[in-house]
């Protein structure tokens, strides 16, 4: 009797303890140690010694990158809401959007964010990734950089000796989860702004990272019984920059053409062996469908919004409220829901005890009945095209309620086409339909002139 009763009680207790895993994702801190409440918010909130009548907020300004208190508050709040996440994904960009800095700035920013995160979550698995700004100067990623050697010292305890070789070679690695393998990539190597491209010795496959990814995907495809000692049948891809286009600015893409194509070719070929594809970089909340050549939706890339509120001057872009998110997953295979938390920066500056609050759940907001799958999100996108109230919801969440405005003409195209096509040929073809409707020749010359002047000024 007793054993049975115990079994029964245990069974009742089980669902609460092992029903699923929570994966916390923090993206784009962009710590600016020069942020000053006496600064100029048109100059990154740096103090230039000029007298000002008004001080800026202690926790940041929508025009600028994050001061340390904002990052600390975001990490504190994520730990308050999720004291024991099963996994933490940290998709990079720790350095501010500044120019002319050296390695000491990069290493200091990475060191500070590492300390904040690791000390708040001492016992958690944390998977760090480089962002394109985590380099001196930014966007200069090479294979075999001193950055990798220095950050290895900070992160090696979390990553394990077996990853040393790939990490030092190109800042990428893998991590075996209970039921899947996380492949954490340094996609800054593929960024079209990466100035080190001229020096790549292997331009086809910088740092042999594609070969690494393909090996892992092929292993997963061959792995028997979904899971065994030496392999898993599922690979989750985690990186800073995603393949595909920026959703807020028409015709802005990240990867060089050939790398985007190669990345997507691999994604399509091994779509069944890929679980999640998780990224940051946009600072905004969006997703990309990945389609095969026959227009079948085979994969989904999820972009997490940022902690930094920084105002991007790209046309149609802007700022965002600080956020972080949590993925609910069964056994590291399906994503059951995605819950995003945010804080209104103005409120936080008025009251330093303002908590991060629940923003939305994919499942509830979009009315998804099953898991968050490529097909489910494809269904949502199709609906958004005609259902303005659904599209408006997405637009609200896109910036975590910072100045949400329904995009029109090519800006609407940028949103919808970037979500529908991560490959450039079909993205551009989709975009060409939107520009036709926007008849710029009808604009008054003064408007065009202003637009040009404005664009030049803010870029
Ligand atoms: C500060 O306020 C005074 C009075 O309104 C104004 O004359 C002055 O130009 C302001 N100074 C700055 C630096 O904005
Ligand atoms: C974050 O938490 C730490 C430790 O509890 C505390 O010392 C610090 O003041 C908090 N910082 C912010 C910005 O909330
Ligand atoms: C990181 O910070 C710690 C503690 O502040 C310091 O001891 C260490 O030298 C720093 N490391 C780097 C690489 O800056
Ligand atoms: C982390 O683990 C250590 C050793 O198991 C334990 O003493 C400590 O309390 C844990 N810290 C937290 C914050 O859970
Ligand atoms: C390319 O390599 C040369 C020779 O080492 C170096 O001088 C140059 O700065 C490098 N260029 C970039 C963009 O990294
Ligand atoms: C793992 O082991 C299985 C069974 O022994 C084998 O079939 C498979 O090829 C191995 N996979 C890898 C990646 O070594
Ligand atoms: C991608 O796949 C297509 C179709 O198989 C092929 O023609 C193309 O060369 C591949 N592109 C790259 C960059 O590997
Ligand atoms: C791994 O995933 C499979 C399929 O989702 C599931 O049946 C199995 O229970 C999982 N195993 C572990 C150890 O979580
Ligand atoms: C500041 O926010 C906290 C938490 O929401 C609240 O309890 C407190 O009353 C607020 N203080 C003021 C002065 O509004
Ligand atoms: C974007 O690119 C497409 C394809 O080249 C072109 O037709 C369209 O005019 C471009 N849109 C803008 C806003 O530049």
From TrEMBL:
Where does it primarily localize?
secreted
One Pfam family this sequence matches = Metallophos
Cofactor(s) needed by this chain: Zn(2+)
Highest taxon listed in the record's lineage = Eukaryota
Q: Where in the cell is it found?
A: Secreted
Annotated GO MF terms:
metal ion binding; phosphoric diester hydrolase activity
Residue span of the signal peptide, if any? 1-20
Q: Which UniProt keywords apply?
A: Glycoprotein, Hydrolase, Metal-binding, Secreted, Signal, Zinc
Domain Sphingomyelin phosphodiesterase C-terminal residues, every copy: 299-435
Keyword Metal-binding in record: yes
Give the UniProt entry's GO cellular component terms. Answer: extracellular space
Residue ranges occupied by any Calcineurin-like phosphoesterase domain in the UniProt entry: 23-284
List, alphabetically, the PANTHER family matched: METALLOPHOS DOMAIN-CONTAINING PROTEIN, SPHINGOMYELIN PHOSPHODIESTERASE
* Family the entry assigns: Belongs to the acid sphingomyelinase family.
State the protein's name. Answer: Metallophos domain-containing protein
Q: Which organism does this record belong to?
A: Caenorhabditis tropicalis
């Amino acid at each position: 009797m007793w054993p049975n009763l115990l079994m029964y009680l245990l069974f009742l207790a089980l669902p609460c303890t092992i029903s699923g895993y929570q994966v916390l994702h923090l993206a784009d801190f962009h710590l600016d140690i020069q942020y000053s409440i006496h600064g100029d918010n048109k100059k990154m909130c740096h103090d230039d010694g000029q007298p000002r009548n008004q001080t800026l907020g202690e926790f940041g300004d929508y025009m600028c990158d994050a001061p340390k208190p904002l990052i600390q508050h975001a990490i504190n709040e994520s730990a308050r809401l999720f004291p024991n996440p099963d996994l933490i994904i940290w998709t990079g960009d720790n350095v501010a959007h500044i120019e002319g800095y050296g390695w000491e700035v990069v290493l200091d920013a990475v060191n500070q964010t590492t300390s904040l995160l690791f000390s708040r979550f001492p016992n958690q698995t944390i998977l760090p990734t480089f962002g394109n700004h985590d380099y001196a100067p930014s966007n200069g990623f090479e294979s075999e950089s001193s950055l990798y050697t220095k950050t290895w010292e900070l992160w090696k305890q979390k990553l394990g000796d077996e990853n040393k070789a790939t990490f030092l070679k190109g800042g990428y690695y893998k991590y075996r989860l209970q039921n899947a393998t996380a492949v954490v990539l340094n996609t800054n190597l593929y960024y079209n702004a990466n100035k080190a491209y001229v020096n790549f010795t292997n331009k086809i496959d910088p740092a042999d990272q594609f070969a690494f990814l393909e090996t892992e995907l092929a292993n997963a495809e061959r792995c028997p019984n979904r899971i065994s000692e030496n392999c898993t049948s599922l690979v989750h891809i985690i990186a800073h920059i995603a393949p595909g286009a920026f959703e807020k600015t028409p015709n802005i893409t990240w990867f060089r053409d050939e790398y985007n194509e190669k990345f997507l070719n691999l994604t399509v070929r091994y779509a069944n062996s890929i679980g999640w594809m998780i990224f940051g970089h946009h600072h905004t909340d969006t997703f990309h469908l990945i389609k095969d050549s026959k227009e079948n939706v085979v994969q989904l890339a999820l972009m997490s919004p940022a902690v930094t509120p920084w105002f991007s001057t790209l046309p149609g872009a802007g700022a965002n409220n600080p956020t972080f998110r949590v993925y609910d997953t069964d056994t590291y295979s399906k994503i059951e829901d995605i819950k995003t938390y945010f804080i209104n920066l103005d409120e936080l500056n008025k009251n330093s005890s303002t908590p991060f609050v629940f923003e939305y759940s994919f499942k509830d907001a979009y009315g998804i009945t099953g898991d968050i799958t490529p097909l489910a999100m494809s269904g949502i996108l199709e609906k958004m095209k005609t259902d303005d109230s659904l599209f408006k919801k997405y637009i609200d969440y896109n910036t975590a309620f910072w100045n949400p405005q329904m995009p029109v003409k090519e800006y609407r195209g940028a949103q919808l086409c970037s979500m529908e096509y991560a490959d450039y040929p079909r993205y551009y073809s989709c975009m060409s339909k939107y520009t036709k409707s926007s008849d710029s020749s009808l604009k008054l010359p003064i408007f065009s002139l202003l637009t040009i002047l404005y664009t030049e000024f803010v870029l």
